[in-house]
Amino acid sequence: MKGQQAFWLLLTVAVSLGFAMRVSRPALNSPLVVHDDVRQHVFWVPRLHDPALFAHDWIADYYESQAPEGYRAVYWLLTLGMDAVQASKLLPLLLTVGLAVAGFGLGRAIWGRADAAALGTILLAWSAWQYDDIASATPRAYAMPLLVAQLALLAGGRWRWALLVLPLQALFYPLGCALAVLTMGTWALWRAGQAAPDATAGDTVSRGSAVGWRAATLALVRRAWSDLLWLAAATAVALGLVVAGRLEAAAYGPMVTAAQARAMPEFQQGGRAAYFVANWYQFWLESSRSGFALGPKDPLFDDLPALVLPFALAVLLGAWMLAGRLRLVRGPAVPGNGLLLLVLLGLSLLLYAAAHALLYALYLPARHVQFSLPIVWALAGGLCWCLLGDRLFGWVRSRSRVAVGLAGGELFALAGVALLTLHAPPPGEFYVTGRYPALYAFLRQTPPNTLVAALPADSNTLPMFGLRPILTSYEHAIPYQPGYYVPLHERTEAFRAAYYAPTLAPLAQVIREQRIGVVVADTTSLERRRRSERERPPALARALDRCGVVRERELVALMADCLLQAAESER
User: Fold this and answer.
1) What is the pLDDT of residues 359-385, one digit of tens each?
2) What pTM was estimated for this model as a whole?
3) Which residues have CB under 8 Å from 141's CB, separation 6+?
4) Residue 531: exposed, middle, or buried by beta-carbon count in 10 A (0-12, 13-18, 19+)?
């Protein structure tokens, strides 16, 4: 039996890791390819070992303040032996292994059979790698592995160990604490109800009055009192860690309110943090901010959402069980108890609704379902597939003398693994390529405090690969905290106006005010503006030959001192 479980566990880890490496292939094959969000959440990591890097940088200070302490600690440890870019590519692989092990443990605990646990976990890894969350190597990459680990411990009856995961969630993905606390509290009450004498509970509830229900509830709470006290203590620790971790971020003021967001173009269709979109399908189902994050499509099913596959299997299991209870068909022989998945489903939807009602107070509604619901669909779907195998092979055996070495569910599970492997998630489209290696190398040779100014679209990869602070950037201009975003927006607009000015005087003023060391000009954008403003072409275009030190593709790096001298000569 142990050998069989070891086989299924190793298969789960190997296939899950295979999915991760296939999706990560663009990044693993090139040092200049990183996940889109790595540019935003990891660029500042080198300052953990070299405080001279990004010192007193407004953008780096903000993003480090958003990073939970555990997240920082892991990057500090990994970057002892590699750079931040390499660490951001290794971390998703490690998290995938953790997800596979925890998922297998959860499946074994709730279903009691290794084949269903393996297939369900592989289906979960398949679902997870359709998305870019684990691949992002950001705090949200920890959300699903930590949640699955906690559920596995709960289902396995290891209450105290499950409590220890709660502070870890506070250290890595604080937003996940709400679902964790609610799930554990509900589970503690259910365990107390299971341990209660049936007759006493039945007598109390049978009164049918409010008093009777109140008495039953109080009795249940008393039986769960010890577990609830431990949960309260763990919650207090987690809350303290969350509050301590938010002290730095608090310097940038409160989160944007729903009323403020509705008035800002950044939150409208096409904006940097688009939330309020007119299309109902996109808003409620497809969006990764307001909906159920059903954006990734499955090309084999006419571009239906990728999660349709595990969801359909989970729904089939539910319908099969319901039909069995109604005696319409012979119901499935469901092993174990999937109640924990139903609890997870109900509480996730509850938090999703609350996040919509209290918009931005609980951050984005999608974050309360996108990491939890795939767990329900995948593990229920894996069991459904194995039960179908049991039923099919039982039917075959009853009508023939064919001997099969493995159980039907096990063969079906292997077939399911093979099908998922053949239909593995494609290489990720959420990776970006640094296109200016010569420019990055030049920036790395400048003093560490050199502030680089470029148009927002041209600045996105400069801090990640050039390791120098930037004045502004589209990638880093997230508008959730006005205390950070408004000053960034103001200096962006000031630089943009100076960038295209017909004289160098406005640009020289911005250079002095912001202490800019290098200006990166985009010849394509300058030429486009020159054609549209023939009478007042950008003066910066005339300084390219005089002050340019590095030219790569359409970008030219110009020394700020030279631009100041050129501005003086214009007078």
Assistant:
1) 999 999 999 999 999 999 999 999 999
2) 0.93
3) 91, 92, 95, 133, 134, 135
4) exposed
